[in-house]
Amino acid sequence: MMHEKNAKFIVLCLMLTQCCLSPAATADSSFEDNDFAEFEDFDSDDDFVEVQQSNVGPQLSTAEEIPTLTEKGLKRDHSILEDDDDDGIVEDEDEFFKDEEEFEGFDSPDKDDEDLDQKTEPKLTVAKIPMHFRTHWDSYWMEMLMLAGLMVYFINFFAGKAKNANLANRWFNTHRALLDDNFVLVGDDGKMDNEKNGLIKESESLYTLWCSGRTCCEGMLVELKMIKRQDVVSLMAGLMRPQQDQIHIKIDLTRGVMDTFVFFVGTKRTVTKVFKEYSDLSKYCTQVSKPEIRYNVPNGLSVLSEIPEATAAILENRVIITLTKYQQYIDYLHISDQFSGPVQQEDANTLKQPDTKPILWAGFNLPREGNMEAVKPLLVLIFYLMERLKTYRMSKEGKQKAERNRLRVEEEFLKSTHAARAEAAAQRREEKRKQEKERVMAEDDPEKQRRWEMKEQKRQAKKKAPKMKRLAVKSL
């Protein structure tokens, strides 16, 4: 038993001895099999290899740990074995990249981070967020002003539109009976199936009425020009330049009903304006000086007259009384047999005088308070003037003067268009000769063509020859 125990003990010792010696053998074999062994030079097997690790890990000094660290370093390429007398040093990854001699221009990440933090330090900006609009209405004063302006505009539009329509209908209802007595058709709009005759709305501030079916006239057009109450801008302009509602009556008289004369009476401002605008007034009339003395016209009214005889016949006692009584509502009265509209711009190609027609025009102001009964006598005055023009006839001297005036105007027109007419006549002659030449050349008669060419040559030579006068000398 004792021998068996001793034998077992000896076997265990041998096994322990073998286990202790196996690391050394492994180390020797690793050094032999390592490809980088030629770069390693050791003085003796007993020397120790110093291992330098990072600041975090512990340092290894035993020879038993060298093979394991060497294998790891070789696999990761993170160790450097120096072929020198000094001992081999295995460097850590952080220490390896910090070598300034090995990596030029490479800065450590810690320094870069610190420099970037110092240079590009972020700046925080706080956005200014306005307070909620329900607590700060003053931030929207511009929008509120725009809304208020739009509201005022629309309120004024509907109010002004309604007032203009009310005034127009009031005037029509007041004068409807008088119009029906003088015209067969009142309120005709040109349609055969017109069931409701009355005012025609052209715009929010303009209403028209056409009446026809009366002797000595082709028809009467009534225009009610109201203030543009629906437009705020027009109302603001009216504060600086006051305006009034007006009614304009235009009557186209039948040709041959009235004598040949031109007459105008109206306010001084209107007379100054229309004298330059209408051709019949500027060509035939002259402004009467002191009409209040010559014709008893009320102060504030001016008169343009062609024939004094006709002016005195129109401004008779009844007309003067009406003008004086309703002067505040009267703007103008225009009677003419040579009315051709506004003055046209001079055109050299115009070879014909504009067409003329006899008219009776009148313009009255409507009452501001809307009492249309106050201006009803003015429409009666228009009908009276129509009958007056139908029956009035001038004297022989007056007619001769009117004829001379019309001849004078015609001669002035012919003089102003002489060059244009001469050019037109020359062009017509040239066209005629061209047509004759084409007709002759189209024929197959050479003798006829030769005679025509000789005739044309003589005409050209005569045209180029100098003009000479033949003087008759009496014999002694």
Automatic annotation (TrEMBL):
Pfam families: CCDC47. Keywords: Membrane, Signal, Transmembrane, Transmembrane helix. One of its GO terms (biological process) is endoplasmic reticulum calcium ion homeostasis. Coiled coil: none annotated. Residues 100-116 have a biased composition (Acidic residues). Its main location: endoplasmic reticulum. Residues 72-81, 426-459 have a biased composition (Basic and acidic residues). The keyword Transmembrane helix applies. It comes from the Eukaryota. Residues 460-476 have a biased composition (Basic residues). GO terms for cellular component: rough endoplasmic reticulum membrane. One of its GO terms (molecular function) is calcium ion binding. Residues 53-86, 100-121, 418-476 are annotated as: Disordered. The keyword Ubl conjugation does not apply. Residues 1-27 form the signal peptide. InterPro entries: CCDC47. Residues 53-62 have a biased composition (Polar residues). It is a single-pass type I membrane protein. It is found in: Rough endoplasmic reticulum membrane. Belongs to the CCDC47 family. This is PAT complex subunit CCDC47. It comes from Glossina palpalis gambiensis. The lineage of its organism: Eukaryota, Metazoa, Ecdysozoa, Arthropoda, Hexapoda.
